[in-house]
Amino acid sequence: MDSPNQNIGCPKLRLRDMISSLKPVLFQTCMNRLKQELEPDNFNWLEKTCQEVSDTGLNSKSKFSFSLISRRINQKDISFENKEKEFTESIHPYFNQLNWNNQNISRLAFLLSLNENSLKDELKSLCDYASVKEQASIYQSMHFIDTEGKCAPVFQEGIRTNVIETFDALALANPYPSLYLNESAWNQMILKSIFMNRPLNKIHGLEDRNNLKLAHSLRDYALERKSAGRNVPDTLWSLIEPFKEQIEGIDEIISIQK
User: Fold this and answer.
1) Are 129 and 63 a contacting pair, CB within 8 Å?
2) Among 33, 66, 154, 229, which one is least packed by beta carbons within 10 Å?
């Protein structure tokens, strides 16, 4: 069955439910920190913008405001400490490993203000016209703003990108794809990561979501590389190995490693 839920255990479901209930707390955590970092007029503009999005939903004015974040808000790096750090890491294991700055924290606050009932359409609308950095912020924030997987098709469209900054935001240190992408989309993301030479060890849920179809695709890829006289990454073998009894031509794969 091509479903992302087949590999999701109770702990992950509990985490998802917790994030959903704590979204207002995360929003306030972001705003409290930004109030310390931004000039008062820029903070007041952001606060007003988020409130308008929450009250009226996404429209042409608020989409323009989203694009204005890059002009109104500086890119100073930002980190969370003490209780804020404990809180953010409790809902995202890699939160404080990501490169947060005032701009993408402001975008996260904006995205947390979107209407739950029309979230998929609103996110797609933003992605369609977003810059590279804006798209990266959207994909990096998906774990917080979509706690039911409604926007997985929007997220999946991003896998087609060849822009490393955008792809890294959706594929690396991001729990969202392992929770909500179906098997086909997940496999597509892993294969694209290999083609783009991205670090597979930074993909959340890589072992949990590993599957036979992916292993077959990786076997074919490994044999192609062998035919071309190119090396095969060790991580690729680690994904094939659990299915070695079910894959034909495994001896050829083993010989590649020698």
Assistant:
1) yes
2) 229
Task: Give first-to-last CA distance, the chain, whole Å.
Answer: 36
Residue in 158, 126, 113, 122 with CA at minimum distance from that of residue 139: 158
Place of tokens 């031509």: 249
Nearest to 88 by CA among 130, 26, 133, 143: 26
Compute the C-alpha angle 44/49/52, nearest 5°.
Answer: 125
**Is pTM, for the whole model, over 0.70?**
yes
For 122-174, how does the pLDDT look when each residue is reduced to its tens digit (9 = 90+)? 999 999 999 999 999 999 999 989 988 999 999 999 999 999 999 999 999 99
Write the burial class of residue 110 (CB in 10 Å: 0-12 exposed, 13-18 middle, 19+ buried). Answer: buried
Containing 35, the helix (H) or strand (E) segment is: helix 10-37
pLDDT digit string, tens, across residues 200-211: 999 999 999 999
- The conformation of residue 251, written as its DSSP 8-state character, comes to H
Residue type, 60: S
